[in-house]
Amino acid sequence: MGTLNRLLLVGLLACLPLGAAADEPVSADPDVTIRQDGDRTIEEYRVNGFLYAIKVTPKNGKPYFLVRADGSDGNFIRADDPDMLIPAWQLFSW
Questions:
Q1: Which residues in 1-94 belong to E strands, given as ranges?
Q2: Does the residue 58 lie in any domain?
Q3: What angle do CA 73, 17, 47 make, to 5 degrees?
Q4: What domain count does the chain have?
Q5: For residue 69, what pLDDT is reported?
Q6: What is the domain-level CATH number for residue 32?
Q7: What is the mean pLDDT of residues 38-43?
Q8: Are residues 31 and 43 in contact, defined by beta-carbon separation less than 8 angstroms?
Q9: Residues in Cβ contact with 24 at an 8 Å cutoff, skipping those fewer than 6 apart
Q10: pLDDT tens across 50-81, in order?
């Protein structure tokens, strides 16, 4: 069984692109995208294209952060209240 696992690992590593790592250097500085959404300001924090936090500043209220719950797509929780459920439903898709 160990040989099969090693062969699978070697096969997966062989499929990875080798030139992609040299094209884009890894950056430690976050990219911040600021946009207006109605009466609130939304700041999206990304590192190498990975969205890891969102800061929401309402017009009338204190700002709060949404952070990744478990590293998966679209699963965010509030940093100041981790028990609060944030809906992430997809109603339509094309």
A1: 31-37, 40-47, 50-58, 64-68, 76-78
A2: yes
A3: 40
A4: 1
A5: 74
A6: 2.20.130.30
A7: 92
A8: no
A9: 48
A10: 888 889 999 998 998 888 777 666 677 777 77
